[in-house]
């Protein structure tokens, strides 16, 4: 390989890594920064692949992601609105899928993953402080967003549910980094303090979907890491014994955490949205109505006047089903199934190294994300949608690193 090619490859690799670091910090702060640096990382990734004349790694997860990508592409030509579907495919699907490969191949060493996580944690610390500040002043200091008028925080995000998604997605990584080995014990105190801050903010979002996601994460982690099971039990006991001193809204939401009387917790608008979505699914169950066309078709399938703006489905799986049908949903679910099957196989057979902890944290985080996807729109927002592919790519990178550690031994 010529010297010029080596320089190009080295430049692309460093630019990709720097872009991921920037995205890790600005993910909850600036969508413009996310767009700019994700596109920059993707361009460098493609240039590097072309120069190396290298294909994508042939793994089952990569094949599943590629299959999902192909089905989304074919959906353009079967869509009820070609323009919307083609724009959605080029502007979102392609960006997200290629970004997944960027993350999986760029975070190739323990040092890179640690640096990435430390930047991510620094950003979460800033968001945590911002959330507490917002709780007391009714306005966050980063984006100057007003408090919604209820005793729940959202920090720089548009909704409390979105902020909750960001928080619980990071908690498994904070906890597993706390449990992994460190040269300096002060790191453990820092991770513990960050967890307390993030957990308080998660509680103050008063987001039941985010709470259920956190619950699923902790139950999953407790299977392999018993100290976290003890921590989870202690948190439950603490909340039960102190919840009477909380704000009335928070107290009521905690008291009725598992109670869904007549599905009233959904609200009439949410039920109307889901009824309409089911009519879309039945109309074209196998192939859907076209990528990104849910909002375009919503009023066509609404049987009564809907007084609000055209919404998302508030159930990501249902919206995928409406847009790309059973085949498309099956391809998306195959990514998740293979990710969990391969990940669990590895964590069952390998010792608890740093990569092992990152892998199990990625599995737990994606599990929590999948839980909230049943009641929210998180997969369809730029920042949180990118967060999904970011964590998925990080998990795949941790799988590779875990396998390499075993090979070296």
Describe this structure in words.
This protein is an all-alpha fold and 409 residues long. The protein has 2 domains: 55 residues; 352 residues, no CATH class. Helices cover 74% and strands 0% of the residues. It is built from 15 helices and no strands. Helix 11 packs across helix 13, helix 13 runs parallel beside helix 15 and helix 14 runs antiparallel to helix 15. The longest helix is centred in the last third of the chain and has 34 residues. The radius of gyration is 22 Å and the shape is globular. The chain starts with a helix and ends with a helix. 42% of the residues are buried. About 1% of the residues have low confidence.
Features:
mainly alpha; 2 domains; 0% strand; globular
Largest sheet: none
| DSSP helix fraction | over 70%
The quaternary structure here is: single chain
How far apart are the termini? 30 Å
**SSE topology string:** HHHHHHHHHHHHHHH
Give the overall form: globular
Averaged pLDDT, please? 91
Structural class computed from helices and strand pairing: mainly alpha
Evaluate the radius of gyration.
22 Å
Q: Indicate the low-confidence ranges by residue numbers.
A: 261-265
Estimated share of beta-strand residues: under 5%
Count of the domains: 2
The count of helical stretches stands at 15
Number of strands: 0
